[in-house]
Structures are given as structure tokens and as C-alpha cells.
């Protein structure tokens, strides 16, 4: 079983901002399986025990992946992730845990999927690495940086919404990331 976690902040205030790109990718990934034969995906449900919204991707009655949106706010995401890993006995995190997050080190329109690499100043990522006791897991690093003025503080910038012209770009990237995740899950149509 795999755990795929997207990072973001809960609430309408943050819904479509740069920091919530992990949630946006998970929504698209879940939608991808809504109408596919041989697969069933549950609705998003708030699971208070896990401080998360979760959906389960099933093949028959077997759960093949858990989709998780931590509701702890970004800086405490590790608490929610570690609870799910423990409860569902997710083993071999280097193979079975995928974390999706925004990345200011990557330009808008680009992404990278890498193991053990990520931005140095991402509090959500740092908290997860701390709670798991290591960083050997897959990261989907979605670029959100489109600043013309580099003096804008990153922590403020990621809480801004995408501009109209940027929405087209981020939607295209989300589609590419979703396709690659489906391939990595070895799931066929």
C-alpha cells in the first residue's frame, strides 16, 4: 500500500494559493480514478484521528493507495503523516511514501520528482522529515515561483493565489504530475 500526501493549509482562505498545490494535485489524482473501470476511489472524508482529509484508492476490495491532505496547517504536517504511516503500517517509505508540495526553488511550469531532495526552507517538508526520522522518500516538487521582484519574502509569496495567467500554467503542470504519478503507481486505464 502506498501513501500519497499533498501539502497545503486547510480552509477557504488558502484554497487556491501557491502553498496548496499539493492539495490541488491530490484532487486531480482522485478525479482521475472516479470513472475508471477496475478502480474505486472514495470521497474525501475528514479523519480527525489522523488530522487529515483522506480518500482511499481501491482495486476490488484491496486498498492500493491512501490519499492524504493533512489539516494540521503546513508547519505541523509531520504529525498527521506519521499517524497514518503508523496506523496503516506503511513500510519501506523509500518506495511507498510520496509527498507532493510547492517549491520556490523551481519555476512555475516545472516540476521534479526526486527522492531525498527538496527545498531547505519548506517548513512542512522539514516537519515531516523530522517526524519520520529521515528524508528517503519520494517528493513531487511542483514549482510555484514566478516572482519578478526577488525581494518578496517567500513565506508571504506562497500564501498568494495564482494570477489568472498562471492558472493555465499550473493546471497543465498538475495534469503532467498526475499522469506521472499514475505511471509510478503502475496503474493502467
Any overview of this molecule?
This protein has 189 residues and is an alpha/beta fold. The protein has one domain (2-184): Peptidyl-tRNA hydrolase (Rossmann fold), CATH 3.40.50.1470. Helix content is 33%, strand content 27%. It is built from six helices and eight strands; from the N terminus they run βαββββααββαβαα. It has helices at 21-32, 77-87, 93-96, 123-132, 154-157, 164-184, and strands spanning 2-6, 40-41, 45-47, 52-59, 62-70, 97-107, 111-115, 138-145. Strands 1, 2, 3, 4, 5, 6, 7 and 8 form an eight-stranded mixed β-sheet that branches. Helix 1 packs across helix 6 and helix 2 (77-87) runs parallel beside helix 4. The chain is globular. The protein starts with a strand and ends in a 5-residue tail after the last helix. The model has no long low-confidence stretch (mean pLDDT 92).
Walk me through the topology:
Elements: E1 2-6, H1 21-32, E2 40-41, E3 45-47, E4 52-59, E5 62-70, H2 77-87, H3 93-96, E6 97-107, E7 111-115, H4 123-132, E8 138-145, H5 154-157, H6 164-184
Parallel strand pairs: 1-5, 1-6, 6-8
Antiparallel strand pairs: 2-4, 3-4, 4-5, 7-8
Helix pairs in contact: 1-6, 2-4
Provide key terms for this protein.
single chain, 189 residues, alpha/beta, Rossmann fold, eight-stranded mixed beta sheet, globular
